[in-house]
Write the structure tokens for this entry.
Amino acid sequence: MKFVIVCLGLLWCCDPSFAQDARKIPTVPGPADFTGSWVFDESNGNSNKGKRGSSREITLAITHREPEIRITRNIKEKGRERINEVVYYSDGRGETNMTSLRTFAATNPDEKVTSETKWHGNKLVTKYSMRWNVSADLYFDVVEAWELVPDRKTLIHTTKYSNPRSAFHKTIVTSGVMDESKGFYRRISPATVREK
């Protein structure tokens, strides 16, 4: 059990939205266009200041042309910059991307995950399993969801981690959802008209 707690702590440190408040917020009904530039909003929910430092800036550049959604995440912290790009296909064909979560880059610099993405009402939902290398390989099921609030100025990114299991025995360490995080992104540039 201590091992699982350590893993959760590491996930909390690596996922910028892990400590955000899981409040109920109205969202846009049906599929929405996420195109635009967005910045992570620490003031919306529980601030990460003091836990991750206030110098971190996270921006998203999203190009949305159904069924392709391309998200470029730029993280600047302590004079260093990290860029991560993922491409999702909302028609469920599947995709392979670098994981947007921070595993151990020194040992797994090219870690990729294969996922499936579909619209579930107003949420763009992506499901996959990922490897987390601590003292031994551990696998998690991950569900990410993106949704837009009615004023179209806030994008909510929800991540759920569940069913951790060992790579060797494939046994479930603890069943069900381990935790859910919400990240809030504020629009900093207007959406453009989506090309058909």
User: Anything to note?
Assistant: The CA atoms of residues 65 and 194 lie 6 Å apart. The longest strand covers residues 154-166. The first helix runs from residue 2 to 14.
